[in-house]
Design a protein that fits this description.
UDP-n-acetylglucosamine1-carboxyvinyl-transferase, Chain; four-stranded mixed β-sheet; 2 domains; 26 strands; alpha+beta
Length: about 425
């Protein structure tokens, strides 16, 4: 098992290119099931979650190869085993995304209940509700979701809202299934995240008929078949936000390439309030911090609100603000396992239900800490960059799920991160 040794404090400078979006790549990879033949996906990052998804598709019958330019080629000509096995799906939440396309193409799917990061309860009831509305017969057996549509799927008006807002992966599942359903489907309270818009744009390039992309109402007119596609995935807004916080927490200046600020307006607005300068430049931006950090209240919400996937990183940043901040988590109310670890580094955080009170401190102090999930891992790396001493971060396999060799990208900028096997 690998650990990180992070020396701090450091100051960063230079330029970094943002990779393609993990959260867009995974459902788009699943979407290739819908179109027999070879699809080519560009800008798909080299991540452990991507590898797990590739293994999952391979078990279904797909053939995957990486092209000379880094493209991911998926040949879905043959799907002869429509089963998402527990040993794979339990390792990655997005494994559930094969349910809709398998059902639409094969008329039957067996998919294990999903796993992923320990960030609280994430039921799949809205996924199943949407697929049932399209005509699927669904039951649970031995931890597997068994879905059948022997007579095909039929379009329907479906409300996809839940107690914590719209469901991103649920929207993806129903959207993919609806592309091959007979008639028109309307998804009301659909997720508006850029990753869902990217999936819809990819599906349209495959021959689907989807309108309302980027809005909470998606209209899908079913088609007889879809065609293989060549498609480039959007930049990863969460990775971009993480590198921006890296510049902010170390009082540095960084240039980000391949960064779409338009997908990050809530984040950019909050950062500017805190005291971070963010200026568009070319296909990216320049980020800098010169003065002290202002405290701020942050509430995570579905897009276009502040993303839950940047909550932990911002908490690390706000630990050094001049005053008290409040962080309220409204997407995954239990997503606070990083609080105790940041407190080990001399942060002053107090959790009260779905809220954390952040009392800013003058400095963070290195400690040995434990990564609990993907984004918490990133928060601990960021804290380590600013802390005095050598921070040891255990279980960094979590960070490899969403950041491609992050130490090899931060070190040329001035970071001092060593990966060790223990």
């Amino acid at each position: 098992m690998d650990v990180f040794r992070v020396e701090g404090p450091v100051q960063l400078s230079g330029s970094v290119r943002i990779n393609g979006s993990k959260n867009a790549s995974l459902p788009i990879m699943a979407a290739t099931i819908l179109a027999p033949g070879e699809s080519t996906l560009k800008a798909v990052p080299h991540l452990s979650d991507i590898s797990v998804c590739g293994e999952l598709l391979g078990r279904l019958g797909c053939k995957l190869t990486r092209g000379s330019e880094g493209e991911l080629c998926i040949d879905s000509t043959v799907i002869d085993n429509p089963v998402g096995e527990y040993e794979i799906v339990c390792r990655m939440r997005a494994g559930i995304c094969i349910l809709g396309p398998l059902l639409a193409r094969c008329g039957r799917a067996e998919v294990s209940m999903p796993g992923g990061c320990a960030i609280g309860d994430r039921p799949v009831n809205l996924h199943l509700k949407g697929l049932k509305a399209l005509g699927a017969q669904i039951h649970l057996k031995n931890g597997y979701i068994i879905a059948e549509a022997p007579n095909g799927l039929k379009g329907k008006d479906i409300f996809m809202g839940g107690p914590f807002g719209s469901t991103v992966l649920g929207t993806a599942n129903v959207l993919m299934a609806a592309t091959l359903a007979k008639g028109r489907t309307v998804i009301e309270s659909a997720a508006c995240e850029p990753e869902i818009a990217d999936l819809a744009n990819c599906l349209n390039k495959m021959g689907a008929k989807i309108t309302g992309i980027g809005s909470p109402r998606l209209t899908i007119d079913g088609v007889e078949q879809l065609q293989p596609v060549s498609y480039e995935v959007v930049p990863d807004r969460i990775e971009a936000g993480t590198f921006i916080v890296a510049a902010a927490i170390t009082a540095s200046e960084l240039r980000l390439q391949n960064c779409r600020l338009g997908d990050m307006m809530a984040v950019v607005d909050t950062l500017r309030y805190i005291g971070i300068s963010i200026d568009a430049e070319g296909d990216g931006c320049v980020v800098s911090r010169r003065g002290l950090l202002n405290p701020v209240d942050v509430t995570t919400q579905p897009y276009p609100g502040f993303p839950t996937d940047l909550q932990a990183q911002f908490m690390a940043l706000l630990s050094l603000a001049e005053g008290n901040s409040v962080v309220i988590e409204k997407v995954f109310p239990d997503r606070f396992m990083h609080v105790a670890e940041l407190n080990r580094m001399a942060a002053n955080l107090r959790k009260e239900g779905p809220t954390v009170i952040v009392a800013g401190v003058k400095k963070l102090i290195a400690a040995q800490v434990m990564a609990s999930d993907l984004r918490a891992s990133a928060a601990l790396v960021l804290a380590g960059l600013a802390a005095e001493g050598t921070t040891i971060i255990n279980r960094v396999y979590h960070i490899d799920r969403g950041y491609e060799r992050i130490e090899e990208r931060l070190n040329p900028l001035g970071a001092k991160i060593i990966r060790e096997s223990v």
